[in-house]
C-alpha cells in the first residue's frame, strides 16, 4: 500500500514516505514471524478491511485515506503493545526486570509526550513519524484522533506500570476503579471509537450506548482469553478488592504465572472452563473468572437487544443492496461475532461442567 506524500519531507529529522512504509513492512514481518496463526490472521483481516474500504469508496467518503489510517493505527499500537508485553525488546533493554521496566516506561512516556505536544520534536523516531502521519491524515478528513490515541497509550502505560515480576514472587495489584477506567472505559472510548470513526460516515454512531456495552463485552473476552498469558507477563487483572473478598491466595497467582507455555496456549484456545485448564486453577480464581464471564455476557446481551447478531450473508446483503455503512462489518460481523463466539463457548463449557 502506498502511503500519502507529505509536504517538505527531508532526510534527517523527518522520515520520507518510503521510510515510513519500510517501517510498517518491518513491523508486519516481525509480527508474522513471532505470532501464532490466530494473530497473523487478524493482521491479514486488517489488510482486507483496508482493501474493502478502498473498494467501497463510493459508499464511505475518502475511503482510501481511511484505509491508510486504519492500517497505520494498527501498526503503531501493535508495535507498542509488543514492547510492553515483552514480545520485542528495545536496543538498550536490560536483563534486570525492574531496570528494563524503567527503560520501557521512559520510552513510552516520550512517545506520549510527542503526541500530546502536537507531534513536534527535534528528534522523532520511527513510531513518532507514523503517529504524525496518522494525525495529519485524520485532520484532512476533519477527524481529531489525538485525545483517543492518548487514551489508548494511557491504557498501555497502565499495563506497563502495573506489571510485576510474578515469576520471582512480586505482586502488584490494581484497584477496581483503576481497572474500570483504563481497562474498560478508556478501551471502548478509544480503540472501538477510532474504528467507528474510520469506518463510518456517520460519527453519531460513536455516541450510542451500544458501543460501550460492546466495548465492555469485548474487553472481558480478551481478559478471559489472555488470563494466563497476562499473568506470565506479570499483569494481574483481578482487582485488589476481589483478591481480598474471594480470599485469593497470592501464591496461586504466582503458580499460574509459572505455568508452561503449552498450558497458557490451552487457555487461549480452549478457554479457562475447559477441563484441561480448570484443573490447574484454584477455586477462588475460578469463581472470579466465571463472575467476569457473567459480566461480559450481560453487556453483550444488552448490546444485542438493540443490535441483533448478524451473519456474514446478511451483512453482505445489506452492503450490496442497501448500501449500509462499513461500520456494520467492523462491529456487527467482526468485534461482535468474535466476542459472542468466545463467551458462548465458555458458557457452554461451564454448563457441561455443572451437569457433570
Can you walk me through this structure?
- 71% of the residues lie in helices and 0% in strands.
- Residues 1-15 have low confidence and may be disordered.
- By secondary structure, the protein is mainly alpha-helical.
- Helix 4 runs antiparallel to helix 6 (146-161), helix 6 packs antiparallel against helix 7 and helix 7 packs across helix 8 (209-225).
- The longest helix is centred in the last third of the chain and has 29 residues, at 327-355.
- It folds into two domains: 14-161, no CATH class; 164-356, no CATH class.
- The chain has 16 helices and no strands.
- The chain is globular and about 55 Å long.
Short description:
The protein is an all-alpha fold and 356 residues long.
Q: Helix count?
A: 16
Please provide the ordered H/E string of secondary-structure elements. HHHHHHHHHHHHHHHH
Tell me the distance between the termini. 53 Å
Largest β sheet strand count, sense and barrel closure: none
Q: How many structurally independent domains?
A: 2
Task: Choose one word for the global shape.
Answer: globular
Uncertain stretches of 5 or more adjacent residues: 1-15
Mean pLDDT: 81
- Helix and strand content put the structural class at mainly alpha
State the total count of DSSP E strands: 0
**Beta fraction:** under 5%
**Helix amount:** over 70%
- Radius of gyration, whole Å: 21 Å
Amino acid at each position: 500500500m502506498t502511503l500519502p506524500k507529505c509536504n517538505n519531507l527531508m532526510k534527517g529529522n523527518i522520515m520520507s514516505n518510503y521510510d515510513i512504509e519500510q517501517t510498517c513492512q518491518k513491523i508486519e514481518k516481525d509480527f508474522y514471524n513471532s505470532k501464532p496463526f490466530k494473530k497473523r490472521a487478524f493482521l491479514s483481516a486488517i489488510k482486507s478491511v483496508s482493501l474493502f474500504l478502498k473498494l467501497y469508496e463510493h459508499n464511505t467518503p475518502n475511503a482510501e485515506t481511511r484505509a491508510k489510517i486504519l492500517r497505520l493505527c494498527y501498526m503503531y499500537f501493535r508495535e507498542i503493545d509488543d514492547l510492553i508485553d515483552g514480545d520485542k525488546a528495545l536496543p538498550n533493554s536490560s536483563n534486570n526486570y525492574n531496570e528494563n521496566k524503567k527503560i520501557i516506561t521512559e520510552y513510552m512516556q516520550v512517545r506520549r509526550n510527542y503526541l500530546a505536544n502536537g507531534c513536534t520534536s527535534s528528534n522523532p523516531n520511527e513510531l513518532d513519524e507514523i503517529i504524525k502521519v496518522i494525525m495529519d491524515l485524520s485532520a484532512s478528513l476533519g477527524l481529531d484522533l489525538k485525545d483517543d490515541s492518548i487514551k489508548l497509550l494511557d491504557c498501555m502505560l497502565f499495563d506497563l506500570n502495573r506489571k510485576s515480576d510474578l515469576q520471582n514472587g512480586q505482586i502488584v495489584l490494581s484497584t477496581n476503579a483503576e481497572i474500570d477506567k483504563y481497562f474498560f472505559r478508556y478501551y471502548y472510548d478509544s480503540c472501538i471509537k477510532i474504528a467507528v470513526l474510520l469506518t463510518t460516515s456517520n460519527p453519531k454512531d460513536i455516541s450510542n450506548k451500544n458501543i460501550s456495552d460492546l466495548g465492555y463485552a469485548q474487553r472481558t473476552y480478551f481478559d478471559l482469553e489472555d488470563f494466563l498469558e497476562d499473568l506470565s507477563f506479570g499483569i494481574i487483572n483481578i482487582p485488589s478488592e476481589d483478591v481480598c473478598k474471594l480470599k485469593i491466595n497470592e501464591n496461586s497467582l504466582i503458580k499460574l504465572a509459572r505455568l508452561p507455555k503449552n498450558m497458557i496456549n490451552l487457555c487461549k484456545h480452549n478457554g479457562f472452563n475447559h477441563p484441561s485448564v480448570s484443573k490447574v486453577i484454584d477455586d477462588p480464581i475460578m469463581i472470579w473468572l466465571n463472575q467476569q464471564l457473567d459480566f461480559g455476557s450481560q453487556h453483550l446481551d444488552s448490546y444485542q437487544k438493540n443490535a441483533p447478531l448478524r451473519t456474514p450473508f446478511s451483512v453482505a446483503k445489506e452492503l450490496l443492496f442497501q448500501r449500509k455503512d462499513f461500520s456494520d462489518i467492523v462491529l456487527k460481523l467482526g468485534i461482535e461475532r468474535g466476542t459472542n463466539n468466545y463467551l458462548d463457548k465458555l458458557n457452554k463449557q461451564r454448563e457441561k461442567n455443572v451437569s457433570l
